[in-house]
Design brief:
The chain is an alpha/beta fold and 259 residues long. Helix content is 43%, strand content 15%. It has a single domain (14-257), classed as Aldolase class I (TIM Barrel), CATH 3.20.20. It has helices spanning 20-26, 36-45, 64-74, 92-99, 126-138, 154-159, 170-175, 181-197, 213-219, 230-239, 241-257, and strands at 14-18, 50-53, 81-86, 103-106, 142-147, 164-168, 201-205, 225-228. Helix 10 crosses helix 11. 44% of the residues are buried. Bound molecules: 1-deoxy-D-xylulose-5-phosphate and ligand LD2JLWAY. 1-deoxy-D-xylulose-5-phosphate (DXP) is lined by residues 20, 54, 56, 85, 107, 115-116, 146, 205-206, 229. GO terms for molecular function: pyridoxine 5'-phosphate synthase activity.
Length: 259
Amino acid sequence: MNNPSPPRRAQRTALSVNVNKVALLRNTRHLGIPDVRHAARLCLGAGAQGITVHPRPDERHIRSQDVSELAALMQAWPDREYNIEGNPAQNLMGFIRELRPHQATFVPDSEDQFTSDHGWRFPQDAERLAPWIAECRALGVRVSLFMDPDPAQMAAARAVGADRVELYTEPYAAAWGSPRQPSELLRYRDAAQAARDAGLGVNAGHDLNRDNLAAFVRAVPGLLEVSIGHALIADALELGYGATVQAYLDCIAAGAAGA
Ligand SMILES: CC(=O)[C@@H](O)[C@H](O)COP(=O)(O)O
Ligand SMILES: NCC(=O)COP(=O)(O)O
């Protein structure tokens, strides 16, 4: 009898910790604390698979120097990923050209946007995105497009050259625990399926937290990465980075086990 190969473990969703909010607190004094690099080191040491930053043009939190210093730090963690988010029409491409992170996440925010609140729209955004995506890929940088969970948009995201999409999860987070939660989850599951069918990898982020994360991972199989900042850093103020990162990894594992 042939010896069947062992079942392949489903790929675990990577946790990329967004350290924007560490920088936000640091920037309220001239003392350099809390230290963004130290925070990143603690998160990586606790098992996070990546670090994310979203350097906004006004430098309200992550500054140019942070982006470079974190890129240098990531060299010491070759099995982890660095993800830089932003709008390629603003400051993002300069960072990508200089630092060549593992992933660039394109987000269609305005210069003074309070926080990200929508994804790219096709066909209207295709023409201007295409050359930036091509440039990133020529530099060896994976491109993920921040997208609303609309299945009808996914083939166009692939056609413009993206490797992945990041599903904007604030609407799910807002519906969590309400009667709308099941229908919202279906929307994300369908969008993720459409993305995978189009040949895209699927990431997700925005307002994910310890309450809503496991249900999301369970409902959206094949999720490659979640980037989490605001809630995770708030939790770390109470629990410390190590226990917090472990708690989020446990949520991902619980969601994957129930998928
Ligand atoms: C694209 C995205 O969802 C995140 O980058 C999020 O917007 C974090 O940005 P802020 O920390 O500036 O709110
Ligand atoms: N891409 C989303 C991200 O990096 C973090 O978003 P949030 O958890 O701060 O809302």
